[in-house]
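Residues determine shape. We examine one folded chain.
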Amino acid sequence: MKSDIWLNKGYKKGYETEITQKISYHIWTNQNDEPIGVTIDFEYANDVHYELNYEDWILFLQKLLHITVPSAFDEVLRNSFSKADYLSFEEELTKNEIEFSKIVYY
């Protein structure tokens, strides 16, 4: 998992940002507080967690959600994810060739 590598490098997992009651994300930063990655958590009966490098997260925001102003993305994410589940999220990442890693807890 990407997060194992990030932890080994001393990177920090940021605060949780809730998109919906069941979907949230964390931005990971390096020692200079620069963003390096994102974890997206789907907390259903089976927890599913996706990890993207920060460049891929920005690509996801721009290409799939058409977000160009980062300060506006929480509201757009909330509207987009309120209708989505992790399977459609993963399908969109795959279809748009956005690299990710995934872990599922049953």
